[in-house]
């Protein structure tokens, strides 16, 4: 049997090296996540500036369906889908719907209290067509709403859906954007 006679025991040195390596790896991963989150928010801010510029050029007029479609695509991770045939075009994030576009109307998810208030304020906003009327609004694009109002409702819908996604899916969306 061998006895250790002094200094640091070799086994203790190996354990300390493993612990330090794990700690450095964790610090590295956290830094990568922070960096990717920063890139995500920089991209988000950039897209907002681009669309603010477009809104200013439109002079606050009601946007076209093409403008609305393009704006939906600026949302991080947004993809289009046609699960119901040719219409409506469905915009999704993380596999969940946040907008349905058909003809001259768009349906958007909405907080129930906000949804009621919006319906009371404008005749162009009605309970979601073929959707859960408590959580969805359908908006006629008829000139009664400005681009800023529509953009705000799209952002609200996207944010509700994005926040409702599982954490792993939210992280995946952020990683694909960055």
TrEMBL record:
Pfam families in the cross-refs: YjbR
Keyword Transmembrane helix: yes
Alphabetic keyword roster: Membrane, Transmembrane, Transmembrane helix
Keyword Transmembrane helix found: yes
Source organism superkingdom: Bacteria
Listed transmembrane segments: 6-26
Listed InterPro entries: YjbR, YjbR-like_sf, YjbR/MT2646/Rv2570-like
Protein name: MmcQ/YjbR family DNA-binding protein
Organism from which the protein derives: Paenibacillus nasutitermitis
Lineage: Bacteria, Bacillati, Bacillota, Bacilli, Bacillales
